Amino acid sequence: MNTNHAELCKKLAAADFALWDLHLYLDTHPGDLNAVGVCNKLQKNAAMLRAEYEAACGKLTAADAHGVEWLCDPWPWEKGGCDC
Amino acid sequence: MFVYEKKLQYPVNIKTPNAKLAAVIVSQLGGPDGELGASMRYLNQRYAMPWGELKGLLTDIGTEELSHIEMVGTLLYQLTKNLTVDEIKRQGFDKYFVDHTTGVYPIAASGMPWTAATIQSTGDTLADLYENLAAEQKARKTYDNILRLSDDPDVSDAIKFLRAREVVHFQRFGEGLRFATDKLDSKNFYACNPGFDKNCGC
Predict the structure, then answer these.
(1) Number of domains, chain A
(2) Contact criterion met (CB below 8 Å) for B105 and B80
(3) Chain A: residue nearest B13 by CA?
(4) Are the C-beta atoms of B184 and B200 separated by less than 8 Å?
(5) ipTM confidence
(6) Is B11 on the interface with A (CB under 8 A)?
(7) What residues are paired with B107 via a beta bridge?
(8) Does domain B19-183 have CATH number 1.20.1260.10?
(9) How confident is the model at residue A1 (pLDDT cuts 50, 70, 90)?
């Protein structure tokens, strides 16, 4: 795995995780408007990192990549740098 | 519907194959308290849930469990990659190997294949939520036992993430249970089932 891929991957996972964990909190605290505000900020940060990751390592969903662009290695369970 | 994202929820990078560890970690894929059961339990229970807060909670946690299935599958794949037949024999992986080679198959460490008999979907809001609280603790217990057996820091790192998620999900299900009982008759939570009876709860 080249450093760039590993680094971008880690950053995106961290940003998506922060957003997701707060999203779950809001399932049981939907009235916490402060947390909704934080969620919106985290969402912008995650979207930015996602764009950066996808530009370097290929699209993350099948709706955005087709054929060889979607099929390129590595898949998430494999090791190796992104050569998409 | 579901949309796949071509990434793990948390990175898994195993440097040293270890079939002995794989043979116990497989329980968190197909064992009685594993991630496949967790996901199937919540994603099937959600239809009977009467309130948006609970429909959302079960959909979201059930979906996160799908990504945990993928993390455990990745651990198994990387732990068994490039093993020699001699290592497979020495590390006691031969009984799994004979049927599955190094393919990923949902089975308990005991050899029992995954079964829906280890989960419930009762159609009863409180019974399901109590089942889920127990399920999260039972999964946390298995991760604690895997950490007791693991001598590989890369394996333990991913397992610690999964363990922490059980604790968070337990907390959220507790809040979901509190939400449900707040909606019911405070003198008798069990007077009726809001997932089935009409005019039960507000």
Answers:
(1) 1
(2) no
(3) A79
(4) yes
(5) 0.94
(6) yes
(7) B113
(8) yes
(9) very low
